[in-house]
Amino acid sequence: MSDHTASPVLTDRTISILSPLVLLGLWEICARSHLIDTRFFPAPSNIIIHLFELASSGALWKHTIASLYRLVVGFVVGCLPAIVLGLAIGLYRPVRAAFDPLISATYPIPKSSLLPLILLIFGLGESSKIAMVAIGVFYPVVINTAAGVRQIPPIFLDVGHNFGASRFNMFRTVALPGALPLIMTGIKLGAGMGLVLIAIAEMIGAKEGLGYMIWNAWELFDVERMYVGLFVIAIIGFVMNVGIDAIERAVVPWRKR
């Protein structure tokens, strides 16, 4: 039985590893054969060499750590209130009536278009970058959390009310566990959005960070350095996704995969 269940998982992991390697291999062949313009699409091997050069000089680590710090702090600032508010929206009709229109009206606004306003309010320091990430994380998490509470069978909520559960206990023992699958989906979407927005925010008014490194490389037409920044962002996104999946398997073991 264990061999039967392990085999598809192993196959999926193998495909997940091979698919980007095959893509990079095709890219390398096309670049070496001059089938693509290497001024804009340098060979992956050259990009990787440039990556190690930047890492050994310490420049890449400086930019990566700066971006990760902003991403983590912004994620926490946006995620925690979003979960609390989403649970409240799902549980209480007055809260839903008050916040649903606001969320529905502001969610479609492109978050990158808010950058000038955020810079005006928070300035060019760390606060503006953290605020951008927090806004990007907030919406997917709050929307998915509220949806997760609403899909809980009403009988579970009724049992909690009948036994006189306090609001805190309703949050902790009914709403939060029941909404966890969709909360984790919102967290995954929010983390990806936060990574996109931190790169955008760092392109304006920053002196370090992966977004700044990409923008500065574009200004200097250092294409390989630009791709290094893009590669590192892709790696961070992949690691985040794997990490969130591992957390989800631990906290939501009953969810079908």
Molecular structure report:
The structure is a single chain. This protein has two domains: 1-41; 49-251, MetI-like fold (Orthogonal Bundle). The model has no long low-confidence stretch (mean pLDDT 85). The chain is 81% helix and 0% strand. The chain is mainly α and 257 residues long. The longest helix is centred in the C-terminal third of the chain and has 36 residues, at 167-202. Helix 8 runs antiparallel to helix 10 (223-251). It has helices spanning 2-32, 44-57, 59-91, 93-106, 115-122, 126-150, 154-162, 167-202, 210-219, 223-251. The chain has ten helices and no strands.
CATH class of the largest domain: Mainly Alpha
Shape call: globular
Q: How many β-strand runs? A: 0
Query: Any idea what the CATH architecture of the largest domain is?
Result: Orthogonal Bundle
- Radius of gyration in whole Å, from Cα? 22 Å
Number of separate domains: 2
The CA-CA distance between the termini, in Å, is 17 Å
Low-confidence stretches: none
Helix content: over 70%
Overall average pLDDT: 85
Report the biggest beta sheet as strand number plus sense, adding barrel if it closes. Answer: none
CATH topology of the largest domain: MetI-like fold
How many distinct helices?
Answer: 10
Structural class: mainly alpha
